[in-house]
Design goal:
This protein is of the alpha/beta class. Helices cover about 25% and strands about 20% of the residues. The protein is built from 6 helices and 12 strands. An 8-stranded parallel β-sheet has the order 4-5-3-7-9-11-1-12, sandwiched between helices. A two-stranded antiparallel sheet has the order 2-6. Helix 2 packs parallel to helix 5 and helix 3 packs parallel to helix 4. The protein is globular and about 40 Å long.
C-alpha cells in the first residue's frame, strides 16, 4: 500500500453501516462546498495536456446522464440493480465523475455501480467489479481505477482484495482508494497491499478529522501545494486523475514512481 494524504477540508458527513459486508461511501460530501476551483487544482498539479494513455474506471454509485458527462462514459455496469442505462440514485458517483472530466476533459470513463440508494456496498459486489475490470481492462483500455468507498477491515476480505489488486497491478492497472472519513480504523480496500491509499489533511496541513490513519503514510501533499475539497472521496479522484495524466506523459511510468513524484 502506498498511502497518500491529499488536503481536504473536514466539513463533510459520513454514514457508516456497522455490518461487516456493507459500508457507506467514503462520505456524503457536500458537493456544493468546493473550497477552491478545479482549475486551481489542475494548475497546481501541472496538468497541462489531456490524457491519451488510457481510460479511468470509477467504482461508485453510478453516474447521471448529464449532457456534459454523457460523452465521457464508455460503458456502465450495474452490480446492484443490474440496469443497463447509466443512473445515480445518490449523486456521489456523478460528483466524482464530474471532477475527473474537469481535470481531464477528454478522459473516457467506465462506470461500475456498487453503491445502492443508501450509499452502501457489499464486499462481494466490490470484488465482482474488480474482477470485471480484470477481465475487460484491455477491451476498454483501463489504466486507473478510482474507488471512493471504504469497507470495514478484516483479514479475510483483505486477502481477497490483495489477490485481485495484485493481478490488476501486474497488468499495469493502478488502483486508487479513499480512506474512511471520521475514523482512525483501517479500511478496505484502502489498506490493502497494492492500493494507492488517499487520505486527507486539513487547511493547517495536519491530519484532518475526516482522515483514517491506517499505516505507512508517505506524504501529505502534492509538491507542497494545498488541494482542498470536502472529504477523502474527492481526494481520491484527484489522485486518480493525476496518476492517469502521469501515465500519458511517460509511457514507462511505474506506479512505484508516485512516492517520488508526489513528495
Amino acid at each position: 500500500m502506498l498511502s497518500i494524504g491529499l488536503l481536504c477540508l473536514s466539513a463533510c458527513s459520513s454514514k457508516n453501516n456497522q455490518a461487516n459486508t456493507t459500508v457507506s461511501s467514503s462520505s456524503s460530501e457536500n458537493v456544493q462546498s468546493q473550497s477552491v476551483s478545479l482549475d486551481f487544482i489542475k494548475e497546481r498539479l501541472n496538468i497541462e495536456n489531456d490524457t491519451s494513455a488510457g481510460n479511468l474506471a470509477i467504482i461508485d454509485s453510478g453516474c447521471a446522464i448529464l449532457p456534459t458527462l454523457k460523452p465521457h462514459i464508455l460503458t456502465f455496469q450495474d452490480f446492484v440493480n443490474h440496469k443497463t442505462v447509466p443512473y445515480d440514485d445518490t449523486g456521489h458517483g456523478t460528483a466524482i465523475t464530474n471532477i475527473a472530466t474537469h481535470l481531464l476533459p477528454n478522459v473516457h470513463i467506465i462506470e461500475l455501480k456498487v453503491l445502492d440508494s443508501e450509499d452502501t456496498a457489499s464486499t462481494d459486489n466490490l470484488i465482482k467489479s474488480l474482477q470485471w475490470i480484470l477481465t475487460y481492462h484491455q477491451k476498454y483500455n483501463i489504466k486507473v481505477i478510482n474507488i471512493s468507498i471504504s469497507l470495514p477491515y478484516n483479514q479475510e476480505d483483505d486477502q481477497k482484495f490483495q489477490d485481485i489488486i495484485h493481478q490488476l497491478n501486474v497488468q499495469g492497472v493502478a488502483v486508487v482508494a479513499s480512506s474512511e472519513n471520521f475514523s482512525r480504523d483501517k479500511t478496505l480496500p484502502a489498506n490493502s497491499q497494492g492500493v494507492i491509499s488517499v487520505g486527507s489533511i486539513d487547511d493547517k496541513k495536519t491530519l484532518s478529522q475526516v482522515y483514517t490513519y491506517g499505516t505507512g503514510i508517505e506524504t501529505i501533499s502534492l509538491g507542497g501545494h494545498l488541494i482542498t475539497r470536502d472529504g477523502t472521496s474527492f481526494s481520491a479522484v484527484i489522485m486518480s486523475s493525476y496518476v492517469l495524466y502521469q501515465m500519458s506523459q511517460n509511457p514507462n511510468f511505474q506506479i512505484a514512481q508516485l512516492k517520488g513524484e508526489i513528495k
